[in-house]
Write a structure and sequence with these properties.
single chain; 224 residues; 12 helices
Length: 224
């Protein structure tokens, strides 16, 4: 039976191969986290080109100058733009996007999720830092309108956790690659495997790895 070290090496090699094939699916690290995450929400079940087009359309000065302006727009307006960009399911995503943006604005008084890590950096001592980190995690965990694994994505992006989201695409890919053992059937067991696998990958961020797995699942798994 393969050890977790063997599986980690196999996983790392697999990710390197995906990177050479699907680099266009990686998030643009020069963009604010909110931009990257909204792109991800569209990208998860749509082609990369459509997701990029939709993200760009929603921040086009001719439509909305910022995510704050998107936040106060109507569901119909956002749905129409998503439909124009061929994002599916637009009727499902539009109201949830607005709900998410509203909560982000309420919690950080801004449309910048980086505010959460800035608060942590401003902590004056270890106890205050710990309390602020827990508060940030609570805020992220309570954000509405995002998939169940969305909070893990955001925490990993902000450096609050080092792990991979456990979502249907990731689950399917790791099953196909035989990276889950016969006893790894429960969510906690699978999360432990994900944590061990990503700990062995130093040259890709957890979020970058996740994007590559999602793209592989969308484009390769469905054809098998």
């Amino acid at each position: 039976m393969a050890t977790i070290r063997d599986k980690s090496k196999k996983f790392h090699k697999f990710i390197k191969g995906l990177n050479s094939k699907y680099a266009s699916a990686l998030p643009d690290e020069s963009q604010p986290l909110l931009d990257r995450f909204i792109f991800y929400l569209f990208f998860y079940s749509n082609p990369v080109t459509y997701a990029k087009k939709a993200s760009k359309a929603l921040t086009d000065p001719k439509e909305f100058a910022s995510w704050n302006e998107v936040r106060v727009s109507t569901v119909r307006e956002v749905t129409n733009i998503l439909n124009e960009c061929k994002i599916k399911p637009a009727d499902f995503l539009a109201p949830r996007l607005l709900e998410f943006l509203q909560k982000v604005f309420e919690e950080v008084d801004d449309a910048r999720l980086e505010v959460l890590t800035e608060r942590i950096a401003a902590a004056e001592n270890a106890k205050e830092r710990k309390d602020i980190i827990e508060e940030a995690k609570d805020i992220i965990s309570a954000l509405p309108g995002i998939p169940p694994w969305g909070a893990t994505y955001l925490m990993a992006s902000l450096g609050l956790e080092k792990t991979l989201p456990l979502d249907p695409h990731t689950d399917a890919v790791l099953e196909e690659q035989a990276l889950f053992g016969p006893k790894d059937r429960t969510v906690p067991q699978k999360k432990r495997v994900l944590k061990a696998l990503i700990d062995g990958v130093d040259d890709f961020s957890p979020v970058a790895v996740h994007h590559l797995l999602v793209e592989y699942a969308k484009r390769d798994l469905k054809r098998k």
